Structures are given as C-alpha cells and as structure tokens.
C-alpha cells in the first residue's frame, strides 16, 4: 500500500485543533490507571511529612482511612501500603511481618472496614521489618538466603491475605517465591487473592527516598545487588517474567519506571499480560526537584511521564502523584 505524500499528506493537519487531537490520541490516562503507594505509621492523628519526598507523608491508621476515601472519590482503584515499623519491632529475622496485629494488618483492616470498595495491594518483602534493612534472611556472611526467606514470605503473604489484602505483591526478588506463595494462598482458602509479581525489579539508585519513608535507610548495610537485577540487563527481565507467569502471577511489574520503559515495552510485546510499572520515589523526587528549581510545570511533567507508561504498554502505574494526577484528570 502506498500512502500519499506531502503536500497531499500533512501530518500536522489532525494536530491543528484540540478536538482533533483528542480524537486522534492513541492512548488515554484515567484515574483507573493509578495505584497510590501510602506509608503507614503508628499513633492517632499523626501526619509525618517525609523530607526526601516533598508532598508525601506517613499517616497513622485513622488518617490513612481518610486518604482511602479521597482515593476512592478521585476514581483511584487501588492503594499500595507500606509500614514504617517502629525500631523496637525490627529484628534480624523480620518476624514482625508475621504478626497478625502489626501496623500493616491494622491498616488493611481499617481501610477494608471503612472503604470496602477500594483494592489493597500489599508489598511482600522483609525490609520494613528487618534490623539490617535487607529484604530477606542473612547467612553469617551477610548473603540473603533464598529458600529460608521464602518460608517467611509465605507467612507474610498469608498474614496480609487474612487481614484482607486483595493483591499480594512480592518485591523481594527471591527465586521461586511466586509459586510457593500461590500454592499457600490456594491451600489457605485465598483463591481469589491476586499476585502482582515485582518480576523485574532493578538494583536502582532511585529508591533512596523510599528507604527514608519506611525507616530503613540508616539500617541498610551494603546493597541489594545479589537479588535485584543489574540495570545492564533486559533479556534477563524476560526470563524473570516468564518464570513468575509460569508460577502463577496474575500480573507483573517493572521497577523503577521511566528509566526502564524499554523493559516494559519488551515484556508487553513478549507476553501480552497485564504489566504494571512503579514510578519510584527517586523519580517522584526528581520531578518535585525540577518543579522547585523552576525547570518545569508539575502538572505537565506528571501527566507526560504517566502517559509514557501507557504508551509503553502498561495497564497501570504505582505513583506517588496518583491523587494529584487523578484530580487533574477528573477536572
Ligand atoms: N518495594 C517497594 C519499593 O521498594 C519502593 C521503591 C521506591 O518507591 O523508591
Ligand atoms: Mg524472579
């Protein structure tokens, strides 16, 4: 087939007016594209602003319920919860993750009680609970043990599911944990609890502010390169995704987001399954720093970066800008 060429063909013609641009848009953003990560802290009526994430706070459970209502009213379908565990409840084995009355479980129950029609995604990994800030159990040399960690992750997943979590999202990058968690969920009567696998999670420099938010930055010794992926690799991301899908993941995630759009596009092309991205704390902080420096307009930067995820093939995005973006789109 041959196309017309200039001047019969002018690609600027459909761009000339707003109505026509709207009609020709290949992708659209809506509040339903967003999952809102929120940080829970102890107490009543407590808001703790996070310096490294201007505009983001930790909220106590009672105020978290207010955030959940705002999210629902703005059309956001799902929240992702992260606990800032009190230092005295952190230990080498992170056993607080298994406590059915821990901060996470109390937050899940309170939100499900007050706002039953919003989804709750819970992160599975031990880093908010360990005294060393690593995602799993360590051997004497400080290596993160794979199979022993999986036993803890199963317990953590079942604990969250019992509290009412709708989507279990293992972010630990242990080999084989998706299959083990799926099997345990089936056995314990949680057949409808989904798994969103953090399949391609990279050992990234963009997680710094998150570690402040969950209180693990000062604790973490070394790095996470023995389990998170090398930013040099993309074939390996396809293998990670293939394994997680074989093991029973309902959806997969690529993390961080914007520096890894190529991975998102490859995963979507190769597997045609629901792919989500995590626009992580360092990405949020970079946008806010640009805005503070007068280098860009917040609303435009936020919507353009979120649209990029849709264009790359994402079903949705975990983003700290979720409420702001959803309200912009709602008008
Ligand atoms: N498991 C969740 C994260 O590590 C979040 C990272 C971030 O927002 O920087
Ligand atoms: Mg894996």
Automatic annotation (TrEMBL):
GO biological process, one term: protoporphyrinogen IX biosynthetic process
Listed GO MF terms: porphobilinogen synthase activity; zinc ion binding
CDD domains (alphabetical): ALAD_PBGS_aspartate_rich (cd04823)
Involved pathway(s): Porphyrin-containing compound metabolism; protoporphyrin-IX biosynthesis; coproporphyrinogen-III from 5-aminolevulinate: step 1/4
Catalytic activity line of the entry: 2 5-aminolevulinate = porphobilinogen + 2 H2O + H(+)
EC number from the UniProt entry: 4.2.1.24
Gene3D superfamilies attached to this UniProt entry: Aldolase class I
A cellular component annotation (GO) from this entry: cytosol
Amino acids binding Mg(2+): 240
Pfam families xref list: ALAD (PF00490)
Subunit architecture: Homooctamer.
Name of the protein in its database record: Delta-aminolevulinic acid dehydratase
Organism the protein comes from: Sphingobium baderi LL03
Phylogenetic lineage: Bacteria, Pseudomonadati, Pseudomonadota, Alphaproteobacteria, Sphingomonadales
